[in-house]
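Now for our target.
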Amino acid sequence: MKFLLEVTLDDDASAEDRAGELGRVLRYWGGNVHHYALRDGDREAVYDSGYREVGQWRVIAS
């Protein structure tokens, strides 16, 4: 299985802000992934701290 996480970061934000936002996304999803079966085809939208959709994670067969 492959777990793919795609996140689009704001190009206009500072490098520090982008790193902080990406860290928050990784911590949030890292802590919540246990709620999912993680089967081929599973996916979920990923949101930033302003609750805007910024990407998704998905599971695919390897």
